[in-house]
Recover the amino acids of this structure.
Protein backbone atom coordinates (compact mmCIF):
# COMPACT_ATOMS: atom_id res chain seq x y z
CA UNK A 1 0.00 0.00 0.00
CA UNK A 2 1.43 3.38 -1.01
CA UNK A 3 2.03 6.30 1.35
CA UNK A 4 -0.53 9.13 1.46
CA UNK A 5 0.14 12.07 -0.87
CA UNK A 6 1.11 14.28 2.08
CA UNK A 7 3.65 11.78 3.45
CA UNK A 8 6.63 14.08 2.85
CA UNK A 9 5.18 17.05 4.76
CA UNK A 10 5.93 17.83 8.38
CA UNK A 11 3.23 17.35 10.99
CA UNK A 12 2.92 21.11 11.51
CA UNK A 13 2.12 21.55 7.82
CA UNK A 14 -0.87 19.19 7.92
CA UNK A 15 -4.40 20.32 8.74
CA UNK A 16 -7.03 17.63 9.33
CA UNK A 17 -10.66 18.80 9.22
CA UNK A 18 -13.82 16.73 9.76
CA UNK A 19 -17.06 18.20 8.42
CA UNK A 20 -20.49 16.67 9.08
CA UNK A 21 -23.42 17.16 6.73
CA UNK A 22 -21.11 18.07 3.87
CA UNK A 23 -23.28 16.93 0.96
CA UNK A 24 -26.02 19.56 1.10
CA UNK A 25 -26.94 23.03 2.31
CA UNK A 26 -24.42 25.07 4.24
CA UNK A 27 -22.13 22.03 4.44
CA UNK A 28 -21.43 22.38 0.72
CA UNK A 29 -20.45 26.00 1.21
CA UNK A 30 -18.22 25.18 4.18
CA UNK A 31 -16.33 22.56 2.21
CA UNK A 32 -15.82 24.92 -0.72
CA UNK A 33 -14.86 27.90 1.39
CA UNK A 34 -12.36 25.96 3.51
CA UNK A 35 -10.60 24.82 0.34
CA UNK A 36 -10.48 28.37 -1.04
CA UNK A 37 -9.32 30.00 2.19
CA UNK A 38 -6.76 27.30 2.91
CA UNK A 39 -5.15 27.81 -0.49
CA UNK A 40 -5.25 31.58 -0.09
CA UNK A 41 -3.79 31.78 3.42
CA UNK A 42 -1.51 28.80 4.02
CA UNK A 43 2.08 28.46 2.74
CA UNK A 44 2.74 26.19 -0.27
CA UNK A 45 4.21 23.54 2.03
CA UNK A 46 0.89 23.00 3.85
CA UNK A 47 -1.65 20.27 3.09
CA UNK A 48 -5.38 20.17 3.87
CA UNK A 49 -6.95 16.80 4.57
CA UNK A 50 -10.69 17.38 4.44
CA UNK A 51 -12.97 14.59 5.67
CA UNK A 52 -16.63 15.24 4.85
CA UNK A 53 -19.19 12.88 6.36
CA UNK A 54 -22.39 11.68 4.72
CA UNK A 55 -24.90 8.93 5.47
CA UNK A 56 -24.00 6.63 2.57
CA UNK A 57 -21.07 5.59 0.39
CA UNK A 58 -22.77 6.90 -2.74
CA UNK A 59 -23.28 10.33 -1.15
CA UNK A 60 -19.67 10.28 0.06
CA UNK A 61 -18.46 9.57 -3.45
CA UNK A 62 -20.57 12.34 -4.94
CA UNK A 63 -19.43 14.79 -2.26
CA UNK A 64 -15.74 13.99 -2.72
CA UNK A 65 -16.04 14.39 -6.49
CA UNK A 66 -17.92 17.69 -6.12
CA UNK A 67 -15.29 19.10 -3.75
CA UNK A 68 -12.48 18.00 -6.05
CA UNK A 69 -14.26 19.66 -8.95
CA UNK A 70 -14.46 22.88 -6.93
CA UNK A 71 -10.78 22.56 -6.03
CA UNK A 72 -9.79 22.11 -9.65
CA UNK A 73 -11.83 25.11 -10.73
CA UNK A 74 -10.44 27.28 -7.92
CA UNK A 75 -6.87 26.28 -8.72
CA UNK A 76 -7.20 26.93 -12.45
CA UNK A 77 -9.01 30.27 -12.13
CA UNK A 78 -6.68 31.74 -9.49
CA UNK A 79 -4.35 34.52 -10.59
CA UNK A 80 -1.73 33.60 -7.99
CA UNK A 81 -1.74 29.82 -7.60
CA UNK A 82 0.10 27.18 -9.58
CA UNK A 83 -2.86 24.93 -10.49
CA UNK A 84 -0.97 21.64 -10.32
CA UNK A 85 0.67 22.44 -6.98
CA UNK A 86 -2.57 23.79 -5.50
CA UNK A 87 -4.53 20.65 -6.38
CA UNK A 88 -1.75 18.51 -4.90
CA UNK A 89 -2.11 20.27 -1.52
CA UNK A 90 -5.78 19.42 -0.86
CA UNK A 91 -6.93 15.85 -0.21
CA UNK A 92 -10.55 14.80 0.26
CA UNK A 93 -11.54 11.56 2.00
CA UNK A 94 -14.85 10.58 3.58
CA UNK A 95 -16.55 8.70 6.40
CA UNK A 96 -20.17 7.57 6.64
CA UNK A 97 -22.16 8.37 9.75
CA UNK A 98 -25.85 8.66 10.62
CA UNK A 99 -26.18 11.06 13.53
CA UNK A 100 -29.53 9.54 14.48
CA UNK A 101 -27.94 6.09 14.88
CA UNK A 102 -25.64 5.75 17.89
CA UNK A 103 -24.10 2.52 16.63
CA UNK A 104 -23.23 4.29 13.36
CA UNK A 105 -21.67 7.13 15.36
CA UNK A 106 -19.54 4.73 17.39
CA UNK A 107 -18.49 2.86 14.25
CA UNK A 108 -17.47 6.05 12.45
CA UNK A 109 -15.51 7.27 15.46
CA UNK A 110 -13.78 3.90 15.80
CA UNK A 111 -12.82 4.04 12.11
CA UNK A 112 -11.33 7.51 12.57
CA UNK A 113 -9.55 6.79 15.86
CA UNK A 114 -8.40 3.20 15.40
CA UNK A 115 -8.83 2.37 11.72
CA UNK A 116 -8.31 4.00 8.35
CA UNK A 117 -10.23 6.57 6.40
CA UNK A 118 -11.22 5.76 2.84
CA UNK A 119 -11.44 7.56 -0.46
CA UNK A 120 -14.71 6.39 -2.08
CA UNK A 121 -13.31 7.24 -5.51
CA UNK A 122 -10.20 5.06 -5.05
CA UNK A 123 -7.70 7.82 -5.82
CA UNK A 124 -6.11 7.76 -2.35
CA UNK A 125 -5.38 4.52 -0.50
CA UNK A 126 -6.94 3.98 2.93
CA UNK A 127 -5.01 5.98 5.49
CA UNK A 128 -4.83 6.35 9.28
CA UNK A 129 -5.49 9.83 10.65
CA UNK A 130 -3.07 10.91 13.42
CA UNK A 131 -5.26 13.72 14.78
CA UNK A 132 -8.09 16.11 14.03
CA UNK A 133 -7.36 19.83 14.05
CA UNK A 134 -11.01 20.78 13.70
CA UNK A 135 -14.34 18.96 13.84
CA UNK A 136 -17.08 21.06 12.26
CA UNK A 137 -20.55 20.04 13.42
CA UNK A 138 -22.85 21.26 10.67
CA UNK A 139 -25.30 18.40 9.96
CA UNK A 140 -28.85 18.71 11.21
CA UNK A 141 -32.60 18.61 10.63
CA UNK A 142 -35.13 21.44 10.60
CA UNK A 143 -38.31 19.72 11.70
CA UNK A 144 -40.69 22.26 10.13
CA UNK A 145 -43.85 21.71 8.10
CA UNK A 146 -44.56 25.19 6.76
CA UNK A 147 -45.61 28.73 7.66
CA UNK A 148 -48.32 30.28 9.80
CA UNK A 149 -49.41 32.96 7.32
CA UNK A 150 -51.50 34.94 9.81
CA UNK A 151 -48.57 35.15 12.20
CA UNK A 152 -46.31 36.11 9.29
CA UNK A 153 -48.60 39.01 8.43
CA UNK A 154 -48.84 40.12 12.06
CA UNK A 155 -45.07 40.07 12.58
CA UNK A 156 -44.32 41.73 9.24
CA UNK A 157 -46.66 44.66 9.79
CA UNK A 158 -45.70 44.99 13.46
CA UNK A 159 -41.91 44.64 13.29
CA UNK A 160 -41.03 45.19 9.63
CA UNK A 161 -39.18 43.24 6.98
CA UNK A 162 -35.73 42.79 8.54
CA UNK A 163 -36.87 41.74 12.01
CA UNK A 164 -39.56 39.36 10.73
CA UNK A 165 -37.17 37.65 8.30
CA UNK A 166 -34.33 37.43 10.85
CA UNK A 167 -36.26 36.34 13.94
CA UNK A 168 -39.42 34.70 12.52
CA UNK A 169 -42.19 33.59 14.85
CA UNK A 170 -44.27 32.09 12.03
CA UNK A 171 -42.47 28.80 11.34
CA UNK A 172 -44.64 25.75 12.09
CA UNK A 173 -42.88 22.75 13.62
CA UNK A 174 -43.75 19.17 12.76
CA UNK A 175 -44.89 16.88 15.58
CA UNK A 176 -41.76 15.47 17.19
CA UNK A 177 -40.57 12.06 16.01
CA UNK A 178 -39.10 9.69 18.59
CA UNK A 179 -36.38 7.33 17.40
CA UNK A 180 -37.06 3.60 17.68
CA UNK A 181 -34.93 2.39 20.61
CA UNK A 182 -35.01 -1.20 19.33
CA UNK A 183 -33.43 -0.11 16.06
CA UNK A 184 -30.86 1.99 17.92
CA UNK A 185 -29.96 -1.13 19.90
CA UNK A 186 -29.63 -3.17 16.72
CA UNK A 187 -32.50 -5.43 17.68
CA UNK A 188 -30.72 -6.58 20.84
CA UNK A 189 -31.85 -6.22 24.43
CA UNK A 190 -30.32 -3.35 26.39
CA UNK A 191 -27.25 -4.43 28.34
CA UNK A 192 -27.91 -2.17 31.30
CA UNK A 193 -31.49 -1.03 31.80
CA UNK A 194 -33.88 0.58 29.36
CA UNK A 195 -32.22 3.47 27.55
CA UNK A 196 -33.80 6.94 27.55
CA UNK A 197 -35.89 7.97 24.56
CA UNK A 198 -34.29 10.18 21.91
CA UNK A 199 -36.15 12.69 19.74
CA UNK A 200 -35.06 12.75 16.10
CA UNK A 201 -34.24 16.46 15.61
CA UNK A 202 -32.59 16.64 19.04
CA UNK A 203 -30.41 13.65 18.17
CA UNK A 204 -29.47 14.90 14.68
CA UNK A 205 -28.70 18.46 15.75
CA UNK A 206 -27.08 18.09 19.15
CA UNK A 207 -26.90 14.68 20.82
CA UNK A 208 -25.45 12.75 17.88
CA UNK A 209 -22.66 15.31 17.56
CA UNK A 210 -22.22 15.30 21.32
CA UNK A 211 -21.62 11.54 21.35
CA UNK A 212 -19.36 11.77 18.30
CA UNK A 213 -17.24 14.43 19.99
CA UNK A 214 -16.72 12.29 23.07
CA UNK A 215 -15.67 9.32 20.97
CA UNK A 216 -13.24 11.47 18.97
CA UNK A 217 -11.44 12.86 22.04
CA UNK A 218 -8.28 10.77 21.32
CA UNK A 219 -7.89 12.66 18.02
CA UNK A 220 -8.92 16.07 19.35
CA UNK A 221 -6.93 16.08 22.61
CA UNK A 222 -3.26 16.99 22.89
CA UNK A 223 -0.41 15.72 25.07
CA UNK A 224 1.11 19.13 25.88
CA UNK A 225 0.00 22.74 26.00
CA UNK A 226 2.67 23.61 23.43
CA UNK A 227 0.61 21.84 20.74
CA UNK A 228 -2.21 23.69 19.00
CA UNK A 229 -5.42 22.49 20.67
CA UNK A 230 -8.09 20.69 18.71
CA UNK A 231 -11.26 22.59 17.88
CA UNK A 232 -14.90 21.57 17.90
CA UNK A 233 -17.04 24.10 16.04
CA UNK A 234 -20.74 23.84 16.81
CA UNK A 235 -23.35 25.22 14.40
CA UNK A 236 -26.17 27.18 16.00
CA UNK A 237 -28.82 29.56 14.68
CA UNK A 238 -29.17 33.32 14.99
CA UNK A 239 -32.60 32.77 16.53
CA UNK A 240 -32.02 30.67 19.63
CA UNK A 241 -33.40 32.59 22.57
CA UNK A 242 -34.26 31.81 26.17
CA UNK A 243 -37.89 31.13 25.24
CA UNK A 244 -36.90 28.29 22.92
CA UNK A 245 -35.76 25.93 25.70
CA UNK A 246 -37.96 24.40 28.37
CA UNK A 247 -36.15 21.91 30.62
CA UNK A 248 -39.46 20.12 31.18
CA UNK A 249 -39.34 19.30 27.45
CA UNK A 250 -35.58 19.19 27.00
CA UNK A 251 -35.64 17.25 23.72
CA UNK A 252 -38.64 19.22 22.39
CA UNK A 253 -40.54 15.96 22.05
CA UNK A 254 -43.82 17.30 23.48
CA UNK A 255 -44.60 20.94 22.76
CA UNK A 256 -41.43 22.96 22.06
CA UNK A 257 -40.13 23.68 18.53
CA UNK A 258 -37.34 21.10 18.15
CA UNK A 259 -34.92 22.99 15.86
CA UNK A 260 -34.81 26.20 17.89
CA UNK A 261 -34.67 24.24 21.14
CA UNK A 262 -31.66 22.23 19.95
CA UNK A 263 -29.86 25.43 18.95
CA UNK A 264 -30.43 27.03 22.34
CA UNK A 265 -28.89 23.94 23.93
CA UNK A 266 -25.97 24.28 21.50
CA UNK A 267 -25.36 27.86 22.64
CA UNK A 268 -25.50 26.92 26.32
CA UNK A 269 -23.28 23.88 25.82
CA UNK A 270 -20.55 25.64 23.88
CA UNK A 271 -20.35 28.96 25.70
CA UNK A 272 -20.29 27.45 29.21
CA UNK A 273 -18.04 24.43 28.57
CA UNK A 274 -14.97 25.77 30.36
CA UNK A 275 -16.63 27.93 33.02
CA UNK A 276 -15.59 27.03 36.59
CA UNK A 277 -19.23 26.71 37.63
CA UNK A 278 -19.89 24.19 34.84
CA UNK A 279 -16.67 22.16 34.79
CA UNK A 280 -17.75 19.73 37.55
CA UNK A 281 -20.45 18.40 35.20
CA UNK A 282 -18.68 18.94 31.85
CA UNK A 283 -15.28 17.43 32.80
CA UNK A 284 -16.26 13.73 32.40
CA UNK A 285 -17.19 14.37 28.77
CA UNK A 286 -13.57 15.17 27.89
CA UNK A 287 -12.10 12.22 29.77
CA UNK A 288 -11.56 8.61 28.73
CA UNK A 289 -8.95 5.90 29.13
CA UNK A 290 -7.75 6.64 25.60
CA UNK A 291 -6.95 10.26 26.48
CA UNK A 292 -5.10 9.61 29.75
CA UNK A 293 -1.83 10.70 28.12
CA UNK A 294 -3.47 13.70 26.44
CA UNK A 295 -4.65 16.07 29.17
CA UNK A 296 -5.13 19.12 26.91
CA UNK A 297 -8.79 19.01 25.89
CA UNK A 298 -10.17 20.52 22.66
CA UNK A 299 -11.76 23.94 22.65
CA UNK A 300 -15.37 24.59 21.81
CA UNK A 301 -16.30 27.33 19.34
CA UNK A 302 -19.73 28.46 18.22
CA UNK A 303 -20.96 29.71 14.85
CA UNK A 304 -24.12 30.31 12.88
CA UNK A 305 -24.66 30.81 9.12
CA UNK A 306 -26.94 33.83 9.29
CA UNK A 307 -30.13 33.61 7.23
CA UNK A 308 -29.53 31.33 4.27
CA UNK A 309 -31.81 29.88 1.62
CA UNK A 310 -31.58 26.09 1.65
CA UNK A 311 -34.06 23.24 1.10
CA UNK A 312 -34.06 22.61 4.88
CA UNK A 313 -37.21 24.71 5.03
CA UNK A 314 -40.05 22.94 3.11
CA UNK A 315 -41.29 25.33 0.42
CA UNK A 316 -42.47 24.63 -3.12
CA UNK A 317 -40.52 26.19 -5.99
CA UNK A 318 -42.80 29.23 -6.23
CA UNK A 319 -42.61 30.11 -2.55
CA UNK A 320 -38.88 29.34 -2.46
CA UNK A 321 -38.27 31.84 -5.25
CA UNK A 322 -40.07 34.61 -3.37
CA UNK A 323 -38.34 33.54 -0.16
CA UNK A 324 -35.03 34.03 -1.98
CA UNK A 325 -36.13 37.44 -3.29
CA UNK A 326 -37.26 38.53 0.17
CA UNK A 327 -33.94 37.51 1.73
CA UNK A 328 -32.07 39.64 -0.81
CA UNK A 329 -34.40 42.55 -0.11
CA UNK A 330 -33.65 42.23 3.61
CA UNK A 331 -29.93 42.41 2.90
CA UNK A 332 -30.34 45.45 0.65
CA UNK A 333 -32.38 47.12 3.38
CA UNK A 334 -29.40 46.82 5.74
CA UNK A 335 -29.63 43.44 7.45
CA UNK A 336 -26.16 42.10 8.31
CA UNK A 337 -27.43 38.55 8.72
CA UNK A 338 -28.95 37.70 5.32
CA UNK A 339 -26.10 35.74 3.78
CA UNK A 340 -28.65 34.04 1.47
CA UNK A 341 -26.25 31.66 -0.31
CA UNK A 342 -24.33 28.79 1.29
CA UNK A 343 -20.84 30.08 0.39
CA UNK A 344 -21.29 33.35 2.29
CA UNK A 345 -23.10 31.47 5.06
CA UNK A 346 -19.96 29.34 5.55
CA UNK A 347 -17.80 32.35 6.41
CA UNK A 348 -17.84 32.11 10.23
CA UNK A 349 -17.35 28.34 10.45
CA UNK A 350 -14.52 28.38 7.90
CA UNK A 351 -12.77 31.17 9.79
CA UNK A 352 -13.01 29.27 13.08
CA UNK A 353 -11.64 26.15 11.39
CA UNK A 354 -8.59 27.81 9.81
CA UNK A 355 -7.67 30.91 11.82
CA UNK A 356 -4.38 30.94 13.69
CA UNK A 357 -4.83 29.99 17.33
CA UNK A 358 -3.25 33.28 18.40
CA UNK A 359 -5.89 35.21 16.45
CA UNK A 360 -8.73 33.24 18.07
CA UNK A 361 -7.23 33.71 21.52
CA UNK A 362 -6.77 37.45 20.97
CA UNK A 363 -10.45 37.74 19.96
CA UNK A 364 -11.65 35.68 22.94
CA UNK A 365 -13.30 33.53 20.30
CA UNK A 366 -14.17 30.67 22.66
CA UNK A 367 -16.74 32.79 24.45
CA UNK A 368 -18.37 34.38 21.40
CA UNK A 369 -21.10 33.20 19.06
CA UNK A 370 -19.71 34.00 15.61
CA UNK A 371 -22.19 34.62 12.85
CA UNK A 372 -21.65 34.90 9.12
CA UNK A 373 -22.53 38.49 8.23
CA UNK A 374 -22.70 40.42 4.96
CA UNK A 375 -22.72 43.97 3.70
CA UNK A 376 -25.34 45.20 1.26
CA UNK A 377 -22.98 44.30 -1.58
CA UNK A 378 -22.46 40.76 -0.27
CA UNK A 379 -19.00 40.98 1.35
CA UNK A 380 -18.93 38.35 4.10
CA UNK A 381 -17.12 38.43 7.45
CA UNK A 382 -17.48 36.74 10.86
CA UNK A 383 -19.41 38.94 13.29
CA UNK A 384 -20.08 38.69 17.02
CA UNK A 385 -23.68 37.72 17.74
CA UNK A 386 -25.68 38.64 20.81
CA UNK A 387 -26.87 35.67 22.88
CA UNK A 388 -29.72 36.12 25.31
CA UNK A 389 -28.33 35.70 28.82
CA UNK A 390 -24.71 35.96 27.63
CA UNK A 391 -24.44 39.12 25.59
CA UNK A 392 -21.68 39.18 23.00
CA UNK A 393 -18.70 38.02 25.06
CA UNK A 394 -20.09 36.99 28.42
CA UNK A 395 -19.60 40.46 29.88
CA UNK A 396 -22.03 43.22 30.61
CA UNK A 397 -22.06 45.93 27.92
CA UNK A 398 -24.16 48.97 28.79
CA UNK A 399 -25.20 51.68 26.33
CA UNK A 400 -21.89 53.52 26.76
CA UNK A 401 -19.91 50.36 26.02
CA UNK A 402 -21.90 49.80 22.85
CA UNK A 403 -21.21 53.36 21.71
CA UNK A 404 -17.48 52.77 22.27
CA UNK A 405 -17.53 49.65 20.07
CA UNK A 406 -14.60 50.08 17.69
CA UNK A 407 -15.89 47.64 15.05
CA UNK A 408 -16.77 49.13 11.69
CA UNK A 409 -19.88 48.97 9.51
CA UNK A 410 -22.11 45.92 9.84
CA UNK A 411 -19.68 44.40 12.35
CA UNK A 412 -20.77 46.86 15.05
CA UNK A 413 -22.65 45.16 17.86
CA UNK A 414 -25.70 47.40 17.59
CA UNK A 415 -26.28 46.42 13.96
CA UNK A 416 -28.63 43.45 13.57
CA UNK A 417 -29.86 43.21 17.18
CA UNK A 418 -33.22 41.62 17.86
CA UNK A 419 -36.02 44.09 18.40
CA UNK A 420 -36.56 43.10 22.05
CA UNK A 421 -32.89 42.58 23.03
CA UNK A 422 -32.21 43.53 26.64
CA UNK A 423 -29.00 44.64 28.33
CA UNK A 424 -27.22 41.75 30.04
CA UNK A 425 -27.37 41.76 33.83
CA UNK A 426 -25.52 39.78 36.48
CA UNK A 427 -28.73 37.92 37.23
CA UNK A 428 -29.42 36.85 33.65
CA UNK A 429 -25.81 35.82 33.12
CA UNK A 430 -25.91 33.72 36.30
CA UNK A 431 -29.10 32.07 35.01
CA UNK A 432 -27.36 31.35 31.69
CA UNK A 433 -24.52 29.60 33.52
CA UNK A 434 -26.98 27.56 35.58
CA UNK A 435 -28.85 26.57 32.43
CA UNK A 436 -25.53 25.61 30.84
CA UNK A 437 -24.74 23.30 33.75
CA UNK A 438 -28.20 21.75 33.49
CA UNK A 439 -27.71 21.09 29.77
CA UNK A 440 -24.33 19.46 30.38
CA UNK A 441 -25.78 17.30 33.18
CA UNK A 442 -28.69 16.10 31.05
CA UNK A 443 -26.54 15.38 28.00
CA UNK A 444 -24.10 13.43 30.15
CA UNK A 445 -26.99 11.46 31.66
CA UNK A 446 -28.21 10.55 28.19
CA UNK A 447 -24.72 9.68 26.94
CA UNK A 448 -23.90 7.44 29.88
CA UNK A 449 -27.35 5.84 29.75
CA UNK A 450 -26.96 4.89 26.11
CA UNK A 451 -23.39 3.68 26.62
CA UNK A 452 -24.71 1.31 29.24
CA UNK A 453 -27.61 0.15 27.06
CA UNK A 454 -25.24 -0.54 24.16
CA UNK A 455 -22.79 -2.40 26.39
CA UNK A 456 -20.01 0.15 25.99
CA UNK A 457 -17.64 0.93 28.82
CA UNK A 458 -18.75 3.97 30.77
CA UNK A 459 -16.23 6.81 31.09
Amino acid sequence: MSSPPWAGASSDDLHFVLLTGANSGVGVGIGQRIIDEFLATRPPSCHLILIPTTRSKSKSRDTVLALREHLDKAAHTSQTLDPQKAVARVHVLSVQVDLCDLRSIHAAADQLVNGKVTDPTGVIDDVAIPRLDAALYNAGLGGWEGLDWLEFARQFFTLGLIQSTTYPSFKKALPAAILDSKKLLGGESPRSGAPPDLAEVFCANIFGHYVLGHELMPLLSRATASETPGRIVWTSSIDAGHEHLDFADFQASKYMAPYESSKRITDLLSLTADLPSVQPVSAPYFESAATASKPVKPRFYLSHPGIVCTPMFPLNWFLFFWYWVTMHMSRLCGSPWHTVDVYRAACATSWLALADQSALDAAGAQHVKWGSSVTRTGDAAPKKSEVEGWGWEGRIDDADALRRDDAQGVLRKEIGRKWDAATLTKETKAEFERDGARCWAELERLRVGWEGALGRKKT
